[in-house]
Design a protein that fits this description.
Length: 363
């Protein structure tokens, strides 16, 4: 049975039995040849004999250390994209898994480059900024701000969903102001001046997003306004965010009329809330009809909205492993995304919402 914890046995490596005991097989010579562009076949026999395996090991270790130092700001410390959620000590691993460890191990830097996972990662960063920022380790906090810097740069370049990032920066700046002014450095890892510089950087990002001008994409093809009215209405019915409907309704007079449709807001209320919630906060107009638009903004003050993401983290109930699932690998190679030991890995998977992700590490 493969061990999921990171221990001295190093699961996944190849081992070879020698007279001195078991030793791990490491092919440093192949890495040296690939990375340094040295063709060993062009060397004579004497040269190959003088270049021993110990030299390969020392050269490879030095190269790995240099690569690690050059990428210290990034979070690519591990190749795996999964982590075992350990809540107690076992024979294979002492201690338990923390939120900071999971934040470092899971590949969030690559996830924000995927449009399906972008909103999921931003929502997770927002929840951490509200209540769990001080529970992160020093390395995880640095990784948090590095990922945030990448997100802001992506939004400024691609102009993708700036409103969501403004909300994230607003919550983060509010939290940092409280921690710096009222609590102080007792709960913050690192120098207090570092956190003041981070707060100033966040305020600068907020100003850049406020000054962001959306560049219209000019072309010879059809635009949204050229579509028939029923197709424009169908597009509005696909939105799950109320502010997206309102913002799109400000584009043209036709879209404004479609965005004020009572049936549209009724379907949006049914998507996010239940009928029992409707009865407690029923709002009627002067004509006796239900004001569904006003009801939606009233209900969201009392109840959480239904969250929708293109892709999420998954949790294996059999292995207690949290991981990103690659759909393409799952279809081509039947890869579950982690070393699962279940007979039917697909039946053990469970999508994890951002709030559920944080709840997994509350012991």
């Amino acid at each position: 049975m493969p061990f999921l914890g990171q221990d001295w046995r190093s699961p996944g490596w190849s081992w070879m039995k020698t007279e001195d005991g078991w030793k791990r097989c490491e092919f440093y010579c192949d890495d040296f040849e690939r990375n340094n562009n040295i063709d060993l076949h062009l060397l004579n026999i004497d040269d190959r004999d003088t270049y021993t395996s110990e030299d390969c090991v020392l050269s490879s270790n030095k190269r790995i250390k240099e690569q690690f130092n050059n990428t210290a700001r990034s979070q690519y410390y591990y190749r795996e994209k999964w982590i075992c959620v350990q809540k107690e000590s076992t024979r294979e691993r002492h201690g338990y898994c923390t939120l900071g460890e999971a934040f470092n191990r899971l590949d969030f830097s690559s996830a924000i480059q995927d449009i399906r996972r972008f909103n999921y990662v931003v929502r997770l960063l927002q929840l951490i900024a509200k209540s769990q920022l001080t529970s992160l380790s020093g390395a995880a906090q640095r990784n948090y701000f590095n990922i945030l810097e990448t997100i802001v740069g992506k939004v400024l370049e691609d102009q993708y969903n700036p409103r969501l990032i403004r909300e994230l920066l607003h919550d983060l700046s509010s939290t940092l102001c409280i921690l710096i002014r009222e609590v102080g450095k007792s709960v913050l890892v690192g120098n207090i001046d570092t956190w003041i510089c981070r707060l100033e950087t966040i305020l600068s990002w907020q100003q850049q997003l406020m000054d962001l001008q959306m560049n219209p994409q000019l072309g010879d093809g059809l635009t949204l306004c050229d579509l028939p009215m029923h197709m424009q209405s169908n597009i509005l019915y696909r939105f799950s965010d109320a502010w997206d409907i309102i913002n799109l309704g400000q584009a043209t007079p036709t879209l404004h009329v479609l965005s004020e449709d009572r049936h549209l807001w009724k379907e949006l209320c049914k998507y996010h809330f239940t009928e029992k919630m409707f009865r407690k906060h029923l709002i009627l107009t002067e004509n006796g009809h239900v004001d569904w638009k006003l009801m939606f903004f009233t209900l969201q003050k009392y109840y959480p909205k239904r969250e929708q993401y293109g892709d999420t983290l998954h949790f294996c109930r059999h292995c207690s492993v949290l991981f990103w699932k690659d759909c393409q690998l799952a279809l081509l190679f039947k890869d579950s995304g982690h070393p699962c030991t279940a007979n039917d890995p697909g039946s053990c998977l469970m999508p994890v919402s951002p709030q559920h992700f944080i709840d997994l590490f509350r012991f």
